[in-house]
Amino acid sequence: MRRIAVVGAGQAGLQLALGLVADGHSVTLVADRTPDQVRGGRVLSTQAMFGPALRIEAAAGLDLWADEAPSVYAVRSALCVPPGVKALEFTMTLDEPAQSVDQRIKLARWLELLAERGGDVRFRSLDREGLRELARRHELTIVAAGRGELAEVFERDRRRSPFDRPQRNLTCLYAHGVGSPDPATEPRARMHALPGLGELYLQPALTLSGPCAILLWESLPGGPLDAFGDHPAPEVQLARMRKLMAEYLPWEAELWAEAEPTDAGAGLSGAVTPVVRRPVAELGSGVDAVHVLGIGDAVVVNDPITGQGANSAARAADAYRRAIAEHGDAPFTADWMCRTAERFWQQHARHGVRLTADLLTMPEHLQGVFAAAAEYDEVARRLANTYVEPSDHAAWLATPELTSAYLDSVRASAGSFARSSDGG
């Protein structure tokens, strides 16, 4: 049994803490809010969990809402140009269903579950000195807090951080009463891209009051869609969204005519700067120095445009749990921490960072992929499942040459099939 502390009660921190308790370790988790405060607060994210993350949760016995949350197999995507015209439209099919559970439900229940299973859960805020004292009392301390002073103990990795400012301003809203363009195909996610303006994503989800729709509005800073910087209340937020939809996405505005926020905490607005931080921080100096290891948003923050946040956090928690188990009784040195984090970076995190950067900047070869997806189902399916498994980005989206070679092979295969069908 090892004495391990986890700071932060998000997807990565709680999942890891629960896994370590299940493995027989003595775990202290520090959270800044109680379960009731989480449930009664504002929405935390627009999480959509893909197949690999859902399997990790299921294997750990943490998929408590699998039978209640809507299962989503497809994303209906459209490229839109002002004033309110669809330039192209296609469906991206997932090989495995995705699900979204309001993190107010998930994280509050996981906090309770951790205490029930023997974890030492402490509700308090920590500053840098408090973190150092915690680390001195434990064999390993892992920081899963991605905001505020504790995240700042981890130095920004300039070489791996693609941006130094937010690329989108964000607003999300959980709503009931959102219509469907084709009820026979539901539940299905929807994505609208407005070049030079931003993106709109809608996904079915489970919230405190049952099934709902989550709308994520990504706007280029300073553009006409950037209308939520004053952090409006959900009712005001919805009114502004309807007005923007009426101008830019009129078919979507019709589906939101009867919508209403799910609750008083249903809205969230802000921005994130995509960043990669060095995963190990030294606190103190000399013989009193201690090291802490970062995980999840403490190390990698992605814009939600590709849905990598919660999925990467789940996979990181699983990877760290396995690394701790494999380490046996050996000391948790700074070198071990660096190797553990670097292994996860190389195997998974770097691909999500690159995919997200490309979707935010839309290089010309990626624009060609979306055009091809509207013509070939094979391309649309592969694009959808690259969100699920971002390591595939390196195989076909990383360079114009790779993309061109793949699209040429798809076109050649389609041409051969057409000639065969014609008897040629």
Structural class: alpha/beta
Q: How far is it from the N-terminal to the C-terminal residue, by CA?
A: 69 Å
CATH topology of the largest domain: FAD/NAD(P)-binding domain
Form type: globular
Number of spatially distinct domains? 3
Strand content: 15-25%
Mean pLDDT: 95
Number of strands: 16
Q: Which CATH-level-2 architecture of the largest domain?
A: 3-Layer(bba) Sandwich
Rg calc? 22 Å
Describe the main β-sheet briefly: 8 strands, mixed
CATH class of the largest domain: Alpha Beta
Can you write the helix and strand succession as a string?
Answer: EHEHHEEHEHEHEEEEHHEEEEEEHHHHHH
Question: CATH H level of the largest domain: which superfamily?
Answer: FAD/NAD(P)-binding domain
Q: Helix share of residues?
A: 25-40%
Low-confidence stretches: none
What does this structure look like?
With 424 residues, the protein is of the alpha/beta class. It folds into three domains: 3-65 and 101-163 and 273-359, FAD/NAD(P)-binding domain; 72-99 and 167-271, D-Amino Acid Oxidase, Chain A, domain 2 (2-Layer Sandwich); 362-421, no CATH class. 40% of the residues lie in helices and 23% in strands. It is built from 14 helices and 16 strands. The protein has helices at residues 11-22, 35-39, 51-59, 103-116, 128-136, 148-151, 234-248, 250-255, 309-327, 334-361, 364-373, 377-388, 393-396, 400-421; strands at residues 3-7, 26-31, 72-81, 85-98, 120-123, 140-143, 169-176, 189-194, 198-207, 210-219, 260-261, 267-271, 275-276, 280-283, 290-294, 300-301. The strands form three sheets. Strands 3, 4, 7, 8, 9, 10, 11 and 12 form an eight-stranded mixed sheet that branches. A six-stranded mixed sheet has the order 5-2-1-6-15-14. β3 and β4 (85-98) form a beta hairpin. α1 packs parallel to α4, α1 packs parallel to α9 (309-327) and α3 crosses α9. It is globular and about 70 Å long. The model has no long low-confidence stretch (mean pLDDT 95).
